[in-house]
Amino acid sequence: MPATSMDSLVNLCKRRGFIFQSSDIYGGLQGVYDYGPLGVELKNNLKAAWWRAMVYERDDIEGLDAAILTHRSVLKHSGHEATFSDPMVDCRKCKSRWRADQIKDGKCEKCGSADLTEPRPFNLMFKTSVGPVADEDHFAYLRPETAQGIFCNFKNVLDSTSPKLPFGIAQIGKAFRNEITPKNFIFRVREFEQMELEFFVAPGTDDEWHAKWVEARVAWWRAQGLESGNLQQYPQKKEELAHYAKATVDILYRFPHGMEELEGVANRTDFDLGSHSKDPQELGLKAKVDENKDSVVKLTAPDPATQKPLVPFVIEPSAGVDRGVLAVLTEAYTEEKLENGTERIVLKLKPHLAPIKVAVIPLARNKPEIVEKARQVKDLLLKLGIGRIYYENSGNIGKSYRRHDEVGTPLCVTVDFDTIGKGEKPELADTVTIRDRDTMKQVRIRVAGLAGHIAGYFSAAR
Ligand code: ATP
Fold this sequence. Notes:
The chain is α+β, with helices and mostly antiparallel strands. The chain folds into two domains: 265 residues, Bira Bifunctional Protein, Domain 2 (BirA Bifunctional Protein, domain 2, 2-Layer Sandwich); 106 residues, Rossmann fold, CATH 3.40.50.800. It is 30% helix and 27% strand. A seven-stranded mixed beta sheet has the order 3-10-11-17-14-13-12, with helices on both faces. A five-stranded mixed beta sheet has the order 21-20-22-23-24, sandwiched between helices. Helix 2 crosses helix 10. The longest helix has 20 residues. About 2% of the residues have low confidence. The structure holds adenosine-5'-triphosphate. Adenosine-5'-triphosphate binds next to strand 11, strand 14, strand 17 and helix 10.
């Protein structure tokens, strides 16, 4: 059970270059974060693990990368323009604004006043003008979810890859929501990334597929290092369901600020494909939609039993990348008391997620032979294609180990005087030391066998 506090995570993330407040030098943009040198690696590794599980390991899912700028009609048809809002209240005393459903005891979180306005809906979508004329007719939305790009490309993917039901389309990308109160670090932000799968099934098989995907997604999060005791499933109540969902199971994680949603697995029925196949006049879009020629396409696939066209149902596991990063950091963050009475911070990340896979440390940075050997070792390991191999040039072995423990580097390889045949033990020539992050144990191994050893370690750790 992680006893990690949000402060210790925020601190580590800034100190070691994982995550920074965006536009920090100008005072920060609220609810927006930037990923630093190690954060970008961790985030990319999490996304790659998801892509691998969804697209590479299966034969029934294709990938997609759709645009962020979204035509207004898409989000009108999808129901987002009318209903994608949160209830907002104002505090009459201090003028701050809050999400009504997150207010505790009916009081303003900032000043404690109970003098709040009635809740009113606040649409969370960001608008931006498109082209040189910025008026009511020339705008697009920044997508509030990646899903709509998948629905709009349903026919393109179907026509170009000819999949048979059931099949899925997977996408990872940015989404934007003008959250009323972004908070809890990267948990609730205004710009974030989603990993979304839309899995299309024949109607009638949807409940079964929904259950299967909930199970598969929990198993995947466990494989990213999250302990089952920190994960929970929460079937949403009828009144909590989004406008498109028949049923949704939230996968919750024990974040530092509480048990909260990490991923939602929704049964979106045929709502979206059905809406995008509707006559635009029904939605009051006549002039604009005719002009843009959308929505005349029927988004159907052949029924596997009869081959007649049907509008498939869709199961959607939708995970937040940023919440995923926060969850794996929470789980991995460990403060340990060592036998010699000192303490260390160690990020016990799963090796495939670690930003740096191996740090190569020359014991003396002013000895050209050691430096050259260490560089050769780095190049040798780089060829394995396992990710970032870091040449560590701090010149202080103790400090290097501490730093790599803190950023979760699973292995450190040290090149010393023995390696170059100038130590006390000539028999150790052409060997290096490998130190394990979690056990802190060191083993000596021949350079000739190093690549094989490290490749074996990373493939076994998956
Ligand atoms: P919440 O109830 O927490 O606002 P939601 O139910 O609106 O979330 P979904 O629309 O189901 O979220 O989005 C799918 C996933 O996208 C969420 O499970 C979450 O991981 C991520 N997500 C949604 N909103 C945000 C946000 N503002 N910041 C970071 N991640 C988000």
